[in-house]
Amino acid sequence: MGIANDWSIAWGIAEAAHKAGAKLIFTYPNASVEKRVRALAEKLADGGTPIPVYPCDVQADSQLITLNSVLEADGHQLDFIVHAIAFANKDELKGGISQTSREGFNLAMDVSCYSLLAVMKYLKPRLTQSASILTLTYEGSIKVVPNYNVMGVAKAALEAAVRYLAAEFGPQGIRVNAISAGPINTLAARGISDFTNMLKHHEATAPMRRLTTKEDVAGAALYLLSSLGSGTTGEVLNVDTGAHILGPTPAGM
Ligand SMILES: NC(=O)c1ccc[n+]([C@@H]2O[C@H](COP(=O)([O-])OP(=O)(O)OC[C@H]3O[C@@H](n4cnc5c(N)ncnc54)[C@H](O)[C@@H]3O)[C@@H](O)[C@H]2O)c1
Predict the structure, then answer these.
(1) Domain limits of the chain?
(2) How many C-beta neighbours within 10 Å does residue 234 have?
(3) Using one digit for the tens of pLDDT, what is the confidence trace for 113-136?
(4) CATH of domain 75-242
(5) I want to staple 51 with a disulfide (CB 3.0 to 4.6 A). Which of 41, 159, 179, 211 is the partner?
(6) 251: pLDDT confidence band, cut at 50, 70 and 90?
(7) Is 54 known to be catalytic?
(8) DSSP-assigned letter for residue 3
(9) Distance, CA 194 to ligand 1 centroid (Å)?
(10) pTM for this structure?
């Protein structure tokens, strides 16, 4: 869930999972994204079995209920779910957080955090024993990142949701984790004011002196989604070429 185009982190994970032998299902939230998702699904099908593609706007409970029914009717069980979904109004990804509107706050929280709870609520019947759920977060949840604003609050809530879900689903053998990715040039990220400077700063200062790639994230995702990660749940795994370890750097160092 969350492929918008071939820049998407979810697409990077899909390609890696496909290569590792996973049978995938894609979802899309609206007609304009559907076209691109179907084209990408065909790319992975490569003349073989087509990848099923279903509608699912995570803001609509009805669509999640329908998705569960359709998956059941089509005989699909889920070994894993990748939730790579977030949204906030562009106006609220700049300036001071105190300017956030109530509607904008609720929208960001609904799409970027509540949706993970809703996915678990409605797709629970489709999960196999030892299924693995993965969401995507960013360091702006625990540290102040200019312009990230309401999305930082939503990601903090999302990370808390991961822990609560991990505790709830753990007894059934179902794991819930997050990857905290470094900044990657995607459609969603471009909504953050001055994102290009964030990329430049990351590249110049991260311990590995390079940007995080969606392939970096996909590698960690395969660990968390597969039996390689069988003992890991409730975790927020940093995949950011080391940026999260840095403290304040005095000028000139
Ligand atoms: N790109 C980064 O720098 C970065 C860093 C850390 C975490 N993340 C997180 O990774 C995740 C994926 O984002 P991305 O950077 O790949 O960007 P992206 O724009 O490719 O993906 C965001 C996806 O959210 C989907 N979406 C938005 N509203 C939706 C709705 N109501 N229902 C269903 N889907 C909806 C969009 O269709 C899109 O596919 C997000 O949670 C994002 O916050 C991104």
Answers:
(1) 75-242
(2) 17
(3) 999 999 999 999 999 999 999 999
(4) 3.40.50.720
(5) 41
(6) confident
(7) no
(8) -
(9) 18
(10) 0.98
